[in-house]
Amino acid sequence: MSKTIMIVDDSASMRQVVSIALKGEGYTVIEGRDGKDALSKLTGQKVHLIISDVNMPVMDGITFLKEVKQLPNYKFTPILMLTTESEESKKREGQAAGARAWMVKPFKSDQLLSAVQKLCLP
Q1: Which residue, 4, 10, 50, 87, is most buried by CB atoms nearer than 10 A?
Q2: Strand order of the sheet with strand 101-104?
Q3: What is the 3-state secondary structure (H, E, C) of 59-120?
Q4: Is the entire prediction scored with pTM above 0.90?
Q5: What is the C-alpha separation between 30 and 70, in angstroms, rounded?
Q6: What is the pLDDT of residues 1-18, one digit of tens each?
Q7: 7 DSSP 8-state letter
Q8: H or E element: which one contains 121?
Q9: Between 12-24 and 109-119, two packed helices, what is the crossing angle to 10 degrees?
Q10: Which residue ranges form the domains of the chain, and what is each CATH number?
Q11: CA-CA distance, 120 to 84, in Å (whole number)?
């Protein structure tokens, strides 16, 4: 049974890079181009992990994170923030909002896949 991971990033090329790495490991991928678009795609299906950027138009990653945590089906879905933001204050804001992990771009795909394996819900 393949696990489903949602990627939320306003950069199509970044979504593609992450998507290719995940699909290569057998994961199913749902893509969102910003927080609002991603929320509209969370329709009750099981999502084992969400990977989200922080800086996006329409709805940023931290706001998206807070919104996801309000949804009964996704309250416990682990969220990995994948972002260019490396400031401690941003990381703390992310953790306070419910992010389980923080990875700074550019990243190595093996780093990402290792984090994904650790974070994915069973």
Answers
A1: 50
A2: 28-32, 4-8, 49-52, 79-83, 101-104
A3: CCHHHHHHHHHCCCCCCCCCEEEEECCCCHHHHHHHHHHCCCEEEECCCCHHHHHHHHHHHC
A4: yes
A5: 20
A6: 799 999 999 999 999 999
A7: E
A8: none
A9: 70
A10: 4-119 (3.40.50.2300)
A11: 22
